[in-house]
Amino acid sequence: MSKQRNQPRKKKWFQRKRIWIPLLFIALLFLGNSSYLAKEPEGEPFLLAHRGMAQTFHMENITNGTCTAERIYPPEHPHLENTIPSMQAAFDAGADVVELDVQWTKDNRFAVFHDWTLDCRTNGTGVTRDYTLAELQQLDIGYHYTADEGKTFPFRGKGIGMMPSLDDVLQTFPNHSLLIHIKSNDPLEGKALADVLATLPAKRLAQLSVYGGDEPIETLKQQLPQLRVMSIATMKSCLIPYIAAGWSGYVPQACAHTQLHIPDQIAPWLWGWPNRFMARMEAKDTRVILVAGSGEVSQGFDVPNDLKRVPESFTGGIWTNRIDLIGPAFHENVEK
């Protein structure tokens, strides 16, 4: 009889065990990845100015083939993207890092210019790499910018000779941090850029990072392993294993000494966001840049109110297309 009486009790105990063990695991999982009990990272976030101080444009129905120069907002400042004056203005406005685009030229130089063709922005035509650097520097890079569907062109005639080379930028800003964007997927561009950057001292190289297509970035990484780089492939090799096993605190070796661009709509789904995630990445010498939206286009934190979406404990980079607005607002908040 006693055995029969104990059987229901054992059954209930096993049923409770099946419930409490998963609940305990979930609780430990939450505590191990919660920022509430984690120490806040030390340091302040930094500002990354996309293309320097640039003219912005509306994003509706934008595609990779959209000519953004033909849809700019009415200009609020006199600068054109990817020029020396725009970069200087960005640093003056509070940028810690300036992002710039490079295109390979016919004479194996790097011009600082966004598009792989010339027709959208300049008074030239054809493919950028079919021209020498000297030929490109004779163009008017502000020729086709318009805010009223072609009725007026506020920068026409003002962009002649304004396209710098990468060498010009490195010489002009020898002590500033730069993020260089290779706009192609040509591995030869990765080799060419590695040859340029290999001449720089280690201290200067530590102030630079490069992102772009998978193939040039892989080539660059092989030749200059000490350089911080990023591509879609490097992002996946870090984040996919982290999403799978990061709940345990595991950080893949692929994350080490790299750069991650994390959309703020996706960031909260990463294990340990923000405090534990940032601490884990900093331990791997990984730089985290927070971009706006879902990551589909180059959205940034572009009006002061956007800064409210940045966690107070975040210590990575904040991507902005409007450093002229965000820089003063950000530094005012820091001083408070």
From TrEMBL:
<protein>
    <recommendedName>
        <fullName>GP-PDE domain-containing protein</fullName>
    </recommendedName>
</protein>
<dbReference type="InterPro" id="IPR030395">
    <property type="entry name" value="GP_PDE_dom"/>
</dbReference>
<dbReference type="GO" id="GO:0008081">
    <property type="term" value="F:phosphoric diester hydrolase activity"/>
</dbReference>
<dbReference type="Pfam" id="PF03009">
    <property type="entry name" value="GDPD"/>
</dbReference>
<feature type="domain" description="GP-PDE">
    <location>
        <begin position="61"/>
        <end position="330"/>
    </location>
</feature>
<dbReference type="GO" id="GO:0006629">
    <property type="term" value="P:lipid metabolic process"/>
</dbReference>
<dbReference type="InterPro" id="IPR017946">
    <property type="entry name" value="PLC-like_Pdiesterase_TIM-brl"/>
</dbReference>
